[in-house]
Amino acid sequence: MTLNDAKGRLLRSGRRKTAIIGFAAATESLRNIASDLLTQPHPYKYVLTYKFSQDHIELLFNKIRRRGGWNNNPNILQFKWALSRVLMRNNISPPSNGNCTEFVNLCSKSAEKRSQQFQPPPD
Question: pLDDT tens digits, residue range 36-61?
Fold first, then answer.
């Protein structure tokens, strides 16, 4: 907040103060988050600041908009279609060691269970 320009004026009080104030707020927030993560009872060894970026979600929404012909306000069907196309194109699937299961496998497993449950008893 004490950054000056070449003439000695504070940047936070100039015409383009929004960027300076936003940068200062983001830096202060990140510093507080890192302090909390690094000093908790089971502290982390490091903090990956890139993971705090909005770039990932912005890139996803940009792809979805592009799929819909740059439609900034898609309805639910357009969004669903565009998201499924993006996921299929990038071949995104759940990890094998994650805490989620693939929906297709889940459906086939539950169908197997249902068919096994309703088998007539052997004669």
Answer: 999 988 888 988 888 787 787 888 88
Based on the domain organization, do 48 and 62 belong to the same domain? no
Domain region containing 84: 54-123
For the chain, the maximum distance between any two Cα atoms, rounded to a whole number of angstroms, is 97
The C-alpha atoms of residue 20 and residue 2 are separated, in whole angstroms, by 10
pTM of the model: 0.44
The total domain count for the chain is 2
What secondary structure does DSSP assign to 59-109, as a single string?
HHHHHHHHHTTS-SS--HHHHHHHHHHHHHHHT----TTSS---HHHHHHH
Q: Same domain for 109 and 59?
A: yes
Residue type, 7: K
In the beta sheet, which residues pair with residue 4?
10
Please, what is the end-to-end C-alpha distance for the chain in angstroms?
A: 84
